[in-house]
Design brief:
This protein is α/β, with parallel strands linked by helices. 35% of the residues lie in helices and 20% in strands. The strands form 2 sheets. It has a 7-stranded mixed β-sheet, sandwiched between helices. The longest helix has 29 residues, at 263-291. The two termini are 38 Å apart. The relative contact order is 0.14.
Length: 336
């Protein structure tokens, strides 16, 4: 290691800038003006198997970020909204929240709708990919960030929202602890995620089905690569372990297709069928080719067999969506 230079004068008394009452916004704006030259490190996307993947923290998230995937994410937003009865969240957040964080914002559609609903609130969405639209409500902004890094926000949030981050997070307990730390006392956090274990209420989905074999292999291989594809099962426990009080957990059926008689479940099943058909290769390519050594052609054969079975109206498959939300105790000291 080279010795430090001894003939360089360093000014020790450096006056710090003042960023006023909203240091996060002011500081972020200033930093942005100096970082134009590094944009390519974020947008120099990787092309693989005919799909496009994020550049920032390359490889840490296995799903694509191309147009086909962004369309699927917006379908997922609609699917979740229908499931929750048209609501954007279930947590009883205050009528006039000041700061809201959307973790893994994706296309930003949830953050944008929250910005319209709460025009006086500051809405921040973060993601590994800058795929959000440029024209958004004035109170909504997005940043490229890895939520698994240590957080450095200067002010806590009234509400933190995290949705569909299965296959994206390595350390779920840490994420819950950071959410707790950066929530205001009395503030709320809500997690929404899946248990993607496909089942059937009548035994029509059997272990011999291509769908079931693929589903079990996907979950097994994900876990062997330190990726939890069924985090919905554990959200309630993680929230309680992090210190949230009054944790509530709800579970919803997601049929695959329009086979249920119930009209509401039929609509959910239609949207779910659409997003799976749209995203099947995107779910599979990176995990199966990078981690398991499959060829692109082999993945496409698997997906074709799954699609064929999904079109069978006698196959009554479903899995589950989980929602857990809780409150940070009022007595907890706020992050400053």
């Amino acid at each position: 290691m080279a010795a430090p230079a001894s003939n360089v004068e360093i000014e020790e008394n450096i006056e710090a800038s003042a960023y006023g009452e909203d240091p996060d916004s002011a500081y972020d704006s200033e930093v942005a003006s100096y970082t134009t030259s590094i944009t390519s490190t974020i947008t120099n996307y990787k092309e693989e198997n005919g799909r496009r993947y994020h550049a920032y923290k390359d490889g840490s998230y296995l799903y694509p970020n191309d147009e086909q995937e962004t369309e699927r994410l917006d379908i997922m937003h609609k699917l979740t909204e229908v499931t929750l009865g048209g609501k954007l969240n279930l947590a009883p957040i205050p009528e006039k929240p000041k700061r809201i964080l959307d973790i893994g914002t994706g296309t930003g559609i949830w953050a944008i709708e929250m910005g319209d609903k709460f025009p006086e609130a500051e809405i921040l969405g973060n993601d590994l990919s800058p795929i959000q639209p440029r024209w958004v409500p004035p109170n909504v902004r997005f940043e490229v960030d890895d939520v698994e890094d240590d957080w450095t926000y200067h002010q806590p949030f009234d509400f933190i929202h995290c949705r569909m981050m299965g296959n994206a997070i390595q350390d779920w307990p840490k994420l819950h602890r950071q959410c707790f730390e950066y929530t205001k006392p009395g503030g709320w956090v809500e997690f929404i995620d899946l248990d993607v274990t496909w089942v059937s209420p009548d035994g029509s989905l059997k272990d011999t089905n291509a769908i079931k074999r693929f589903n079990l292999e996907f979950i097994k291989m994900s876990r062997e690569n330190n990726i939890e594809s069924c985090p919905g099962l554990y959200l309630e426990g993680w929230m309680k372990d992090a210190g949230f009080q009054g944790v509530q957990a709800e579970k919803f059926v997601w049929p695959v297709g329009t086979w249920p008689k119930d009209k509401h479940l039929k609509e959910i099943g239609a949207w779910n069928y659409l997003q799976i058909m749209q995203g099947l290769e995107g779910f599979t390519y990176a995990l199966f080719t990078r981690r398991l050594g499959y060829s692109k052609a082999e993945v496409e054969v698997i997906c074709a067999n799954v699609r064929k079975e999904m079109k069978d109206p006698k196959l009554h498959a479903m899995y589950h969506l989980h929602v857990a939300y809780g409150q940070k105790p009022e007595s907890t000291t706020a992050t400053s």
